[in-house]
Amino acid sequence: MTSESAPLIEIQNLHFAYGHHHVLKGINLSVHRGQLVAFLGVSGCGKSTLLHLMTGQEKPSKGSVHIDGQNVHELDNEGLYALRRKMGMMFQVSGLFTDLSVYDNLAFPLREHTDLPERMIRDLVLMKLHAVGLRGAHGLMPAELSGGMERRVALARATVLDPMLIMYDEPFAGLDPISLNVIANKIRNLNEALGVTSIVVTYDVSESLKVVDYVYFIDGGVVVAEGPAKEMLESRDPFVHQFIHAEEDGPVAFHMRAHSFAKELGLRR
Ligand SMILES: Nc1ncnc2c1ncn2[C@@H]1O[C@H](COP(=O)(O)OP(=O)(O)OP(=O)(O)O)[C@@H](O)[C@H]1O
């Protein structure tokens, strides 16, 4: 297999625990270059943890994450830093620096990671803001933005260093339907326009299925179903069906695992 045809991301038998809490119990998945992929699962299933393992913020207890042919957890600090430079990230909480203007929020990573002259930084910042329709907002402070605008600025910032991979953690959370649609379409358009690979981590099934190519469903610390987004809508898999149609009954557990209720109420020993 040539390096271009090899998956950009390859995760094998990935295990991770916070203390005794085993969150990931053998995740296997791969993401091909140019794909827009969603990791779907209920709140608390470990989606954000998986992203933290991919960026090297956490170390697995077993298994591996390869990105662009490199084993993330075998890299030294310098290697990890270089790899992270090629990853753009957008989080649910936009993470914008509240004391910097929109312009400086985008200029910051360029000043930090490149030797580009200010003139060129200015052109790049305005170009990236233009791509999300917010060139006119460059002089505003984050507090002056609506939630949807803030998310778009964060989106522009995630692309500012021309990453090969962009990861979005709950990009749709808390947005009104129009802003939500705008963000979903921007994620799709940026994936094409920038020729990047993108991962969207979300519990928002309906929105993500409209724009992504491929979906991994995560439950109980493993991948329980996967497939092209369009096929998932027709899937008869009980997990996928329950999740997509938001049904109360099915294999997706609503209750966090706990001791017997009777025992906790002191009714039985
Ligand atoms: N730093 C931490 N220390 C201990 N437990 C944690 C920590 N971070 C997350 N967890 C636990 O690990 C599990 C997975 O959390 P994670 O945030 O990865 O889930 P998620 O699927 O991204 O959820 P959400 O969609 O609500 O963000 C949860 O049970 C959570 O309580």
UniProtKB/TrEMBL annotation:
<feature type="domain" description="ABC transporter">
    <location>
        <begin position="9"/>
        <end position="245"/>
    </location>
</feature>
<keyword id="KW-0067">ATP-binding</keyword>
<dbReference type="GO" id="GO:0005524">
    <property type="term" value="F:ATP binding"/>
</dbReference>
<keyword id="KW-1003">Cell membrane</keyword>
<protein>
    <submittedName>
        <fullName>Phospholipid/cholesterol/gamma-HCH transport system ATP-binding protein</fullName>
    </submittedName>
</protein>
<dbReference type="InterPro" id="IPR027417">
    <property type="entry name" value="P-loop_NTPase"/>
</dbReference>
<keyword id="KW-0813">Transport</keyword>
<dbReference type="InterPro" id="IPR003593">
    <property type="entry name" value="AAA+_ATPase"/>
</dbReference>
<dbReference type="GO" id="GO:0016887">
    <property type="term" value="F:ATP hydrolysis activity"/>
</dbReference>
<keyword id="KW-0472">Membrane</keyword>
<keyword id="KW-0547">Nucleotide-binding</keyword>
<dbReference type="Pfam" id="PF00005">
    <property type="entry name" value="ABC_tran"/>
</dbReference>
<dbReference type="InterPro" id="IPR003439">
    <property type="entry name" value="ABC_transporter-like_ATP-bd"/>
</dbReference>
